[in-house]
Design a protein that fits this description.
Blueprint: H1 2-54, H2 63-89, E1 92-94, E2 101-103, H3 124-129
Antiparallel strand pairs: 1-2
Helix pairs in contact: 1-2
Length: about 140
């Protein structure tokens, strides 16, 4: 039975890797679509700018392009979230300096040399123990 258990585990592992690969490709495809949406928004901004220049209104009013700018910011945020999700699926971390990915256990970026910061997360109990100062700040420190 040992052979069949190993075979079953291998097939299961291959299935999980295939699911991960499909999910990564789906997210990459979404990012490509979002990038083309950003290009469309930039094209619309250019059309508004050109129309205002032709009408003799320079600089154009910011309200006319504000919706396009907000949409671009939203799309960039969604792309960033997808990239983080991809990094989580591949067990890699992304350098905040250059944007390249490195192995999860790396302490420095292999591309730019920047150190990966470790952010300490406090538990909920630790946060409750820390007293908050009010506006005046003249409360006594905890003993």
């Amino acid at each position: 039975m040992s052979f069949f258990d190993k075979f079953k585990a291998g097939v299961s592992d291959a299935g999980n890797k295939a699911k991960t690969l499909v999910e990564i490709n789906r997210l990459k495809l979404q990012n490509n679509g979002k990038k083309s949406d950003i290009d469309e928004q930039l094209l619309e901004i250019g059309k508004v700018e050109f129309a205002s220049t032709e009408a003799g209104k320079w600089p154009p009013d910011q309200e006319s392009i504000q919706s396009y700018v907000a949409k671009i910011h939203q799309l960039n945020f969604e792309i960033e979230q997808n990239l983080l999700h991809i990094a989580n699926l591949t067990d890699e971390k992304v350098c905040r300096g250059c944007g390249n990915s490195s192995a999860m256990n790396a302490k420095f970026c292999a591309h730019c040399g920047r150190t990966f910061e470790v952010i300490q997360v406090q538990s909920e109990e630790e946060r409750k123990e820390v007293p908050l100062l009010k506006d005046g700040g003249d409360q006594e420190e905890p003993k």
